[in-house]
Specification:
There is one protein chain. This protein is 38% helix and 0% strand. By secondary structure, the protein is an all-alpha fold. The radius of gyration is 16 Å and the shape is globular.
Length: 101
């Protein structure tokens, strides 16, 4: 059985990075994130707000530019009904609260 394709929100991180003539490694280093994380974000994966903020500042932008750089958070409509909002990380997490008691 084939797995359904994951809808990804478009963003302009790669285009802006390339306009500023930065490599992925340079932007990742300036933002304090891994190059793999940056590659995932450029491919359309969601990221945490603090990661968005780090990328914006590394690009010389302000938090008010968030929508211009990262889009509005909704994936484009593929003609199969209304676009689904991205829900972020839905992996189940272990409850670690008991470990520290």
């Amino acid at each position: 059985m084939a797995t359904p394709s994951v809808k990804r929100a478009p963003n302009a991180v790669r285009a802006i990075r390339e306009d500023k003539m930065l490599t992925k490694a340079e932007l990742a280093r300036a933002a304090g994130i891994s190059a793999l994380t940056l590659a995932r974000i450029e491919a359309g994966s969601e990221c945490r707000v603090d990661t968005m903020r780090k990328i914006l500042f590394a690009l010389g932008m302000e938090p008010t530019d968030k929508d211009r750089v990262f889009g509005t958070g909704a994936a484009p409509d593929d003609g199969e009904g209304a676009p689904l909002p991205l829900q972020g990380d839905t992996k189940p997490r272990r409850d670690l609260s008991r470990r520290w008691r």
